[in-house]
Every structure is written in structure tokens, then in C-alpha cells.
């Protein structure tokens, strides 16, 4: 959750506010998407709802521009209510080997994937898969500070209304787009040498996601030629699900990358030592059964001894 909330904090306090005039319609639609599909903590969810309602009022007033100063003022007003996002941007999953690597762009991709997956798993009917991607496209076009990146993403997504309909299709479209971007940037100097951009998901995370599952190592010269979309879809739904998100600092940090292919299109989370929740439950059952058997055996031995003592005393 820290990377996701840091992404939102960066959006509202650093990226959007550098514009002179904000595209209020695209911002309102994007925040509306966050309200419906972002797996927020209750405090953050309240803030997003208040922000969305405020933006809706500004959009209705067609002659009223939205300036960064107004957004800053609104954001600062709600800090005292403990409903705002964390002030300190901190990367965990997206921490690069140096400050100039990964960080916000990485967290933005995680945010977008999380939105597509949670719109699907929540069964959102007010938005289609194309609507979700169009709102993401609107944000990238209007606010993303990397103009070249924004242009590339817009060109990729300009026909999503024709290409995508369902939420599942939106999940897969964004996954393919992300792999295309990673391939294009794989040899750029902006790529972290300690975190090379590879075809995702790699075989060590999902060996069944590709028909070439026995050979590829996911470098772009040896990436899988055929993906199994249905398996990839289920992998992504596990990886970016709300169950893989640490909602508070007191919760144990989950390992969202670690999921195991079972059969068909099913995955389960791996919680440690290569074990799933099912494995752990089975171990508890076996352990409990073993304890019961040992106790019963101990009682049986005690009774046998007592009978032996009584028999010996009668003979004496």
C-alpha cells in the first residue's frame, strides 16, 4: 500500500500542480475511477470521495477554471482531518538502486494495474473496461510529466474504445501495453541496471503463463512467443488483488509476487518457505492429528501398566 499511496501523494502534490491550468474533466474522471476501484484505507477513501465531489462541482461550472493553487488549498485543508495521503513519498516495491531509477513511474504502473484488476473483481458495472482505460489515458495525457511517455501511451491507447469492452480485456490490454513499454525502454539509460526490464511475468513467478514455459528466461531476445492469456489473467488478478496489499503499517507485509500455479487457471498465494495457506492448514491438521494419536497412545500405555501392576499384586 505504501507505493500506491505514495503514487497518489505524488500525483496530487507534485505532478498535477506543476501545470498552469488543470484539465478538470480528465482529473474528475480519474479521481472518480479511484473512488470506485482503488483499494483505499477508510481515511483515504473519504478524502477521495470529498475530492471527487468538489471536482464534480467545478466541472459543472463550465466557465470556472481549475488552477493548481485551488487544488493545493483543498488538499491542505484536509490534512488536519487525517483524511489526506501521507506527506512523505516512500518507495518500497518501487525502490530503485539509485534515486533516479524506478520510483514514481513504477508506482504509477502498479496503480494502473491495481485499478483495472479491482474494477474487475469488484464487479463495477458503471464503468466498462474501455472506460477504465480511457480514464487512465486521460490522466496520462493531461498530467504525466514525461511528455514523450505520455505521447507513446496515448498512441497505444487511442483505440481502446474499439479494442476493449470487458474488465478482463482491460486487464490484459494494460499488461500487454506495459510489456511493450518495457521492451522499448529495456536498453534506455533510464533503466535501472539492477532491475532490468523483462517480459512479465517471468517464468519463476508463473511458468504456466507461456506455452514456452520450459525454456524462456524473459529477456527480450528470449521472451515467450505465445502467452496463455487466460492463465496470465488469473495471475494478474491474484498479483494485484486487494488481498495482496498491506493496508496498514501494523499488518505483516505480504509477498505479492509469490503465487503458485495449481491447475487450469488457478493460483494460490505463497506465504513463506514455498508454502500456501492450504499447505499450512494441512500441516496444522496433520500436526493436530499426530498430537491426538500420541496422547491416546500415552493413555493406552498407562492403562496397560496399571493392569500389569494389579495383576502382579493379585498373584503375590
From TrEMBL:
Transmembrane residue ranges: 284-302
Reactions catalysed: 2 R'C(R)SH + O2 = R'C(R)S-S(R)CR' + H2O2
Organism: Paramuricea clavata (Red gorgonian)
Protein name, per record: Sulfhydryl oxidase
Recorded superkingdom: Eukaryota
Enzyme class: oxidoreductase
Biological processes per GO annotation: protein folding
Cofactor: FAD
